[in-house]
Amino acid sequence: MTKPPKPKPLLQDADKPVRSRPRKPRNPAQPNLLLEPMPDRVEPCLALLKARPPKGDDWVYEIKWDGYRLSVHVEPTRIRILTRGGHDWTDRFPAIQQAALWLPVGTAILDGEAVVLDEQGRTDFGLLQQSLGGRGGKKSSSDAIFMAFDLLYFDGHDLRDSELDMRRHLLEDLVPAGEQGDIRLSEEIEADGDQLLASACEHGLEGIIAKRRSAPYRSGRLGDWVKVKCILSDSFVIIGYERSTVARAGIGRLLLAARKGKKLVYVGGVGTGFNERNAYELREQMDKLIIGKPAIDTGRKRNAVFVRPELVAEIEYRAWTQDGKLRHASYKGLRERQDDAAVYEIA
To answer: What's the longest Cα–Cα distance across the chain?
Structure first.
């Protein structure tokens, strides 16, 4: 297959690719560790959303990738590719599976993101969905690549209690910087956090991730990893749509909801971001879920069709209004149920 272009370098000369910091000498005591059982699955470490990058020598930065969070398990007799929710998607990513077979390791668990890059080398969630056949599709993607950013298990050793620096050192041995295969290294970037964020936004990227060098790998959203976005992007439940005689597939505007405790709360709508293909796919999905009354109060709506709150959409937006509605929202695509994407929660 034709490889997607490499992302544009940030904060460096155009002819010099981004590189991680120089490797530290390998700890000679590492090979003497006792062998430990390989976990069947690891709940992912999740990034906490912040408005600004954290400061200090204990923080390192990476580009934020816009795709599906996956873990690649290299086992003695097979490769397994698991979604964030623990679903086996090995057959959906045959190119990543093949690349994992070629890794110079007996057993390993790599944490990372499956992405598809556009012509400018930026991740595009919509292109990733199309390559998989849309929400609920069963296609295999030969265009997706895996951006590896952590190593949780390596040749009989569970690395989750090790500091990030140690895990990255071993990962960079396994997936060298600059390689352009179907498994690539998500490289750390030495830079001022604010300057890197500004450069990422200037290049049209989604944002950056900051990670604490000294932290072990802890499952959940505990603050060891922080994400800072150029444009806000979150998942919301679709509760209906407003009809239109001129819009694609008759969808004038999607009606959206967020979670507040155990309830759903109406947060406004989105009427942009659709193309011919995803609009008709979305309409087909919604037509299977039509109900007579709205699942939650949306206020008075003309020409509205309400659906069971089962579909989750990824939405870009600029801000929130004072009355709790999304501003300048744009539709990006439907989230897969197996992706286990968290619906936005209102505090």
So the answer is: 70
Catalytic positions, written as ranges: 64
Contact predicate 325/298, CB 8 Å: no
CATH code, residues 41-229: 3.30.470.30
According to CATH, the superfamily of the domain at 232-339 is Nucleic acid-binding proteins (2.40.50.140)
Question: pLDDT tens digit string along 138-185?
Answer: 789 989 999 999 999 999 999 999 999 999 999 999 999 888 899 999
Lowest pLDDT segment from 28-42, 280-294, 303-317, 331-345: 28-42
Q: Which two tokens stand for residue 251?
A: 């969808």
Q: Is the pTM of this model over 0.70?
A: yes
Tokens for 207, please give them: 């944002």
- State mean pLDDT over 217-236: 93
What distance in Å separates the CA atoms of residue 145 and residue 110, rounded to the nearest whole number?
13
CA dist 108 and 102 (Å) reads 12
**Quick one: 159 exposed, middle or buried, by C-beta within 10 A (0-12, 13-18, 19+)?**
buried
Domains of the chain by residue range: 41-229, 232-339
Structure tokens at 28: 């000679």
Check if the beta carbon of residue 133 is closer than 8 Å to that of residue 20.
no
Which residue shows structure tokens 């929710």? 85
Measured at the CA of 89, the angle between CA 344 and CA 282, to 5 degrees, comes to 50
Phi/psi at 306 (5° precision): -105, 145
